[in-house]
Amino acid sequence: MRIFLAIVFALSGVINAWAQQTPNRTTTPQTPEILVDTAKVKQDSIQGDITTTIKYTAKDSIVLNVQNRLVNMYNDASIDYGTMSLKAHTTQLDYKTNLVNAIGSKDSTGKALGTPLFKDDQQTYEAEQISYNFKTKKGKIREVVTKQGEGFLHAEVVKKTEGDAMYGIHSKYTTCDLPHPHFYINSSKMKAIPGKKIFTGPFNLVFGDIPTPLGFLFGYFPTPKKRSSGLIIPTFGESRQRGFYLRNGGYYFVLNENIDMRLTGDIYSLGSYGLQLQSMYIKRYRYRGNISMSYSSNKTPVTSASEATIGPGNFNRIEPKSFWISASHTPTTLRPGGKWSASVNAGTQFYNRQNRFDSPALALNNTFNSSVQYQFAKPTSPFTLTASALHNMNTTTGVHNFTLPEATFAVNRQTPLKWFQKKSSGSWFEDIALSYNVSARNLISTQINSSTLSGVPNLVGGSAVDTVLKLNGKNFRRILANADYGIQHSLPITMNSIRLFKFFQLSPGLSYNETWFFKKFDYNYLNNLNAVRIDTTNGFYRAYTYAANASLSTRVYGTYIIKGKKIEAIRHLMTPNISYSYNPDFSKKYTRQVQVGRRDIEDNIPIQYLPIYRSLYGVPTSFRQSNMNFSLTNNVEMKVRAKSDTASTFEKVSLIDNLGITSGYNFAADSFQLQNFNIQFRTLLFKKLNLFSNAVFDPYKITKEGRRLNEYSLSSGQLARLVNANLNMSMELNPEALKKGSQTAQEQAPRTNRPSLETNQNLVAEYVDFKIPWTLSLNFTASYFKSTSLRAEDQISKSLGVDGSVNLTEKWKVTYSTGYDFQFKQMTYTSLNIYRDLHCWEMSISWVPFGEYQSYSININARSSILRDLKLSRNRGINWR
What we know:
- By secondary structure, this protein is mainly beta.
- The chain has four domains: 2-222, Lipopolysaccharide (LPS) transport protein A like domain (lipopolysaccharide transport protein A fold); 230-377, no CATH class; 408-418 and 431-557 and 578-623, no CATH class; 750-876, no CATH class.
- It is 6% helix and 55% strand.
- The chain has a 32-stranded antiparallel sheet that branches. A six-stranded antiparallel beta barrel has the order 5-6-11-12-10-9. A two-stranded antiparallel ribbon has the order 7-8.
- Strand 21 and strand 22 form a beta hairpin.
């Protein structure tokens, strides 16, 4: 083997000497490449201390000096040795000292060519000159730039040790990825342990090549490849009513690769404080979720309450101590079998109003829902089981509603007659289908209705009011006693549509419903109190109803041929539908006639039919119903010649998306059989303006006092009386919409599922889109309500909403949201947000100029998460901050 290697190097030397004597060496078309494999041989005088294969190439030439054991490579030289690789314009490999040296070059204009690029495992170094020892794995790098975590390390000279530690002099650390960074941390000495941390001696900050006095005696910057635990630096500021503060300071825990935890706190100079615990977890391809718990103790002095108009408002200290819990759990894959999901938002009544500094949307919201659900289903099975626990709270009324639990078992649509047939006969009755659903629910509410207080006299229709109990241990028994629970069974029988006379579709159906109750009401009139006493009896009771229904529909087309230059034809589509439903009379079974007036006072004793059961699923149908409902839907389209095509091609343009009218007639009612007429209209004007309106008309007359008469208004020459009407117009404009020239109503709809910029300033950078120069969204809403009395005025409301964005330049973006209420003659919630991209920095300004949530904030911060505490903030907000 040694003789073979000696022959190879000798031949290489001869070839190299011949190549040096050959003119125009750079034009040689061959690319010499020599692989020296020493992994299977012992070390000798030629081999040196190399322990694995070295592969090296060059675009120009490779010169081997066998006597001095040197390999020189020119023009785009490349060396690969294990996990190490080196690329440069010129390199020299010394087998005697195990050193490799690399330098770059410059062209005639002074532009750098072939700057040395050194990679060792996952670390990358770019420098003017590199020297590296294969044996000791030590090196010296001049004018180096290497990436450490999210930052970049610049140094005049860096020494790399065998243990991967690096020592640099005249160093700079920055998160700016430019060769000449906008800012950096300047230090004469610096030590870096790749993938872990960076230490510096005394340092100061430099912005735009201008040194600042900001700095410290030493610096520590973590640069982990993975998540790691560490301190969270708090932000500082001042609040009017709580004083100076340190906010969101604490510690970040990495429990394992799937779970983390963030524990932070707030402290104020006037005695208030807060605690927050946040945790996120994820199981790849299975589920993910998070949980957040917050507690606040507010010792702000009580002030008088007043609403803000131009200046900031003052709020009472409503809750000295408050808390909030948020959690979510979501499966990430669709797996057969059981799966859990959860969404929890609950806490004390005024926590969001007092503590949501950065989210006006949460502070203004007054309804929060929570749910925990388990669902079991298999694709091959018709059965589905769902169990859930629900919670609803209203922060305005203080009412809590708990559904603990709610369970549903369902059997999907089945066709029993087909089970016993090997081959279909094509008969219509084969499509008769059954489905089954049973639901059980238990509702616990802190609101006790005035008409359901057990054993207490209640004035029917009188002045008794509902009671809202506080959710605490003292009221626990009373709240549980107010619980309402029941079970409902549903068995619908349906079938596919039957074609009649070629043009009509008939869809019949039957349904059977049965409800199980556990409370029964007994009514007794107390003559001396002129009140009705309600006694509640616990037990097991059942109520059933059955009904039949059928619907008949068809389609009528009408086409008007024009044959014009642009318009080919106009088509009108009418879709009439008639449906009928029948329910028998169950009044004797499920209601009682109750006297609610004194005989010695009134001639006509009022009688009311009151239900004997109380149910979550509603009171069973008490009286016979025989309803016929009818509707007529109209669509108008126009066939026009396509602008982009010279051939005889046409496209459809919608003129009226929907013009419909619905009403009904109850044959079983003794009066007012004809129902109100509901008219809807929806279209897209000028391919950009969505228009929707609806109106309700009453076919009966009314008296001057507003009392409705069982007499058609048509008898007095009026077709129907307008009751109320609504109009909504919306338009969303952007350059893409103008280019397309047409959009559907869905494309024009506002993108309400995207978080607004004013709700969370931390999300500003994530949702800034510099590709769209500007956007504009307009929304106008008007409503009209006709007063039933001639003495009262009609109610009219009108409001206009405007929001959008403007890109002043590629780096400047302005977003805005405002509106005007024409009825109250005042502006609605208004906000202005300005964002500036500063490359490695960013600036955001948020301003609410007036109203209850008047505030402003200015933030300038580094974009990198590792230097997120390097920022300048100025905030001024509402007084309860």
